[in-house]
Amino acid sequence: MQRVTVKWIDAECQEDRWNDIEEAREACFENLEPCYTSGYLLHEHPQHVTVTLTIGGDSCGPHLTIPRGCIVEIVKHETDGSD
What we know:
The chain is built from 1 helix and 7 strands; from the N terminus they run E-H-E-E-E-E-E-E. By secondary structure, the protein is mainly beta. The longest helix has 7 residues, at 21-27.
């Protein structure tokens, strides 16, 4: 399987309580920080990409599906032939 690192922007919930509207608007000017997920490319779909964190034999560990609209960049890493 191809090893990849996906740079993506996730949705963010600012607060878990009611807020003053002006205070809430001030927070809207902050940039969202990117997320980075590295692992093995399990599946590419027109709407999303799925990366698994661990592979072993015919099994894989936890996997994360990231919507394409959130993806900034996918870096494909070279393999040494043992993957």
